[in-house]
Amino acid sequence: MRLLRVNDAAALAAAYVRNRTYLSPWEPVRPEEYYTEAWQAADIANRLVAHEAGEGYPLGLFAGDTLVGRFNVAGIVRGPFQSAGLGYWVDSKYAGRGLASAAVQLIVEMARDELGLHRIEASTLLHNVGSQRVLLKAGFQQIGTAPRYLQIAGKWQDHNLYQVVLHE
Q1: Which of 46, 52, 108, 136 has the most CB within a 10 Å radius?
Q2: Domains in the chain: how many in total?
Q3: CA distance linking residue 27 with residue 159, whole number of Å
Q4: In terms of residue numbers, what domain contains 119?
Q5: Residue 35: which CATH number?
Q6: Rounded to 5 degrees, what angle do the CA atoms 77, 83, 89 make?
Q7: Would you state the pLDDT for residue 167?
Q8: Facing residues of 159 across strands?
Q9: Which terms does the record give in the GO molecular function aspect (predicted)?
């Protein structure tokens, strides 16, 4: 796992194309352009600007040269909040192997030890049991349910909310 680079755009676009059907129940409806190298290059570039400003950390999980997962620490807020949000997915061919769990656990350690964050939040659809297991293994606790929280797969859907507090 490493920080994404703009030249990872082709690998990221290929991963989204490979996983389009697999990810569609868990993500917003995407325009066709989203699945292109150009769109992904622009998105990575924007996320790297946020990274340079200390507001995000866009990560890719690789098996050799193949991108097999994406993890975003985003919306980093400093000051008294010291918090960020986490989003992620793993390629369908690599799901169920513990890769997401290991990556999220590493991100929790990085957020605490390197980024100095106090808290990370994440959300899952109510029926996304796999992602809930990943979060619980990494020390997240469910803190509530948000009705119609995000527009996923074309409709506003309820989400479970999770957080991990990194410093007591």
Answers
A1: 108
A2: 1
A3: 12
A4: 2-165
A5: 3.40.630.30
A6: 105
A7: 87
A8: 125, 146
A9: protein-N-terminal-alanine acetyltransferase activity
